[in-house]
Fold this sequence. Notes:
Radius of gyration: 16 Å
Shape: elongated
Distance between the termini: 36 Å
Number of helices: 3
Number of strands: 0
Helix content: 55-70%
Order of helices and strands: HHH
Largest sheet: none
Structural class: mainly alpha
Strand content: under 5%
Amino acid sequence: MPLVLEAEKLPRATLSELRNSLRNDLIEARDLIDHPRGAVHDPASLETARELLEGALAQVDRPGPRERAALGRDINLAYAALVAVIDLVKSHTDVPLVPAPRPK
């Protein structure tokens, strides 16, 4: 499920900003793993989520400049990892699957 299909056609600044935003989202997702909001049914799934998250961050954080295509790959990896981490946490903990209604 790529988020960026043709990175070469997008401005480098846009790609860098999106990459940085997704990187920050991955960092924030650590809290979902470290402090689940419900009972954990399968601790191994949370460890899998952690390994996936840390692996994606290691790739995104590697040193050196990136061409647009490489930025696109980083974005797609970070996005896919984020979706998978959220799914693993929600599938193996007692968290509400539907958000609570907003207060009026």
